[in-house]
Amino acid sequence: MPGQVFAQSHSRLASLAGTKTAEALRTGPKPEAVEAALAWAAGDGNHLLTLADAAYPKALLEIPDPPIALYVKGNPALLARPALALVGSRTGTAQGEANAEAFARSLGEAGLTIISGLALGIDAAAHRGALETAGGTVAVLGTGIDRIYPAANESLTREIAARGALVSEFPLGMPPARHHFPRRNRLIAGLAQGVLVVEATLNSGSLITARLALESGREVFAIPGSIHSPLARGCHHLIREGAKLVETAEDVLEELRARLGNSLPPRPEKPRTRRAAPARRASAPPARLDLPPEACKVLEALGPEPRDIDSLALATGLTVDALNVHLLTLELEGLAARQPGGGFQRLHRPLL
Domain ranges in the chain? Predict the structure, then answer.
């Protein structure tokens, strides 16, 4: 009963529900904040879920310090579906973002709701990939739900509100702050049955999300990368610590089917016969008949690790001016991307 809750000491409440919850229960909300929240909840597509509501996500009841209330804009039913958190760097590479979008689309089509933090880079790519799928997507915010942050994701935020769900535990009008994002990350990890890290440095907030997932008994997955890339080091660290190395979406589904049972479609049967693929060199890119021969030579010289213009000149025998022309062509075709630091990297389609 509510009376029994409020009769408990502050230390008792803190041990049961967490320090933040105990403090909120002790002080109580300001009347104007309550009025603003109720007015917001009356709007179309807006929902205010409390711990006492049947629609409050049960997964969050398993984590320490669950929020007393959640602001949800969009479809709150997504919070109860089987879900995977897909997170990574705000400054992901073009290949990393392509991987995030492709994995999110494939896993969303398999029935998983994709949860992320609406940050630039990997998070935004994950939301874009899942937005049109059966699983849908949920964005957990580090601000009040009535704030759009970052501003560059305004269009994506509105799309998620219309076809997925935005979630925040912060009061209306709350601006972004550094200490908000670790709290947001615990909700990302708590709402999902597993966390997939795509690209991350060793000090990335994505590793915080992975650690929180482990502490809550969730699965952790990581996509490996180049040993020369700082954005791969966080994933390699997780793999050394026991995270499952992921190369395809099926690697994730295989693990989660054991946890979720019949909540996901069964693994498709492999065909009994398969036409043999034509032999080719492992390093050769797909044939592109519409590319000039010299552009094909540049594409063959590029690989999964960034190469600078000087090493490309040595490998191809082309001048720097000619290389710049062909590299621009490859960028426009979506076959290569310029990386931080000025190097170039061939883009591969993820094996899904």
Answer: 77-263, 293-346
